[in-house]
């Protein structure tokens, strides 16, 4: 049975570590851990989660986009485990948009990201997958892969004036709905 794992917050050493490559995709403990990541992302209303966010420095992320109170405009996708993910190309079209993070609770920031990306990863069966994402899903992928490299969204904001509290961000979203 999948477990809900504790989120490591900014300041925990694992958040700034380089995550290790996964060498045995078929390991039973790894497969159980992936189930735990799915359960934890769902429990936290996360759009994704990276293994270092639950204190495991391995190159595994979950993408799990769906509209919710934290991201009302998020597109829906089937929750997907990505092992040893990498971005193989990023468009020159860079777009700034709001991001938050389970590891940095209570904050949002305007973060510049590639609008379109090409990616490669292994699924939980070990099959190599190549895909292209754009917009919100490209943003979530880049955000989660940053965690594997010891980065958080705060490292990507261009100015501290691009940071707001969660409460103020909710006001921004409410205003956008009325427009």
Walk me through this protein's architecture.
The protein has 179 residues and is α+β, with helices and mostly antiparallel strands. It has one domain (13-178): Alpha-Beta Complex (Peptide Deformylase), CATH 3.90.45. Helix content is 24%, strand content 30%. It has three helices and eight strands, in the order αβββββββαβα. Strands 1-2-3-6-7 form a five-stranded antiparallel sheet. The chain has a three-stranded antiparallel sheet with strand order 4-5-8. A hairpin with a 5-residue loop joins strand 6 (116-122) and strand 7. The chain is globular.
Tell me briefly what this model is:
This protein has helices at residues 28-43, 135-148, 166-178, and strands at 48-50, 60-63, 80-90, 94-101, 104-114, 116-122, 128-134, 163-165.
CATH architecture: Alpha-Beta Complex
Number of domains: 1
Question: What is the CA-based Rg, rounded?
Answer: 16 Å
**How far is the N terminus from the C terminus?**
44 Å
Top-tier CATH class: Alpha Beta
Q: Tell me the quaternary state.
A: single chain
Keywords, please?
alpha+beta, 179 residues, Peptide Deformylase, 8 strands, globular, 3-stranded antiparallel β-sheet
Chart the SSEs and their pairings:
Elements: H1 28-43, E1 48-50, E2 60-63, E3 80-90, E4 94-101, E5 104-114, E6 116-122, E7 128-134, H2 135-148, E8 163-165, H3 166-178
Antiparallel strand pairs: 1-2, 2-3, 3-6, 4-5, 5-8, 6-7
């Amino acid at each position: 049975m999948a477990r809900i794992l504790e989120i490591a917050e900014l300041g925990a050493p694992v958040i700034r570590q380089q995550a290790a490559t996964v060498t045995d995709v078929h390991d039973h403990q790894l497969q159980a851990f992936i189930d735990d990541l799915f359960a934890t992302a769902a429990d936290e209303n996360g759009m994704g989660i990276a293994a270092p966010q639950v204190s495991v420095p391995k190159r595994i992320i979950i993408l799990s986009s769906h509209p919710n109170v934290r991201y009302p405009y998020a597109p829906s996708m089937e929750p997907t485990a990505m092992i040893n993910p990498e971005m193989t190309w990023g468009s020159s079209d860079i777009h700034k948009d709001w991001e938050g993070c389970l590891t940095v609770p209570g904050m949002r920031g305007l973060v510049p990201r590639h609008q379109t990306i090409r990616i490669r990863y292994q699924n939980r069966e070990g099959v190599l997958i190549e895909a292209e994402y754009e917009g919100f899903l490209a943003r979530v992928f880049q955000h989660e892969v940053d965690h594997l490299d010891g980065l958080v969204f705060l490292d990507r904001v261009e100015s501290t004036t691009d940071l707001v509290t969660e409460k103020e961000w909710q006001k921004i979203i409410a205003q956008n709905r009325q427009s």
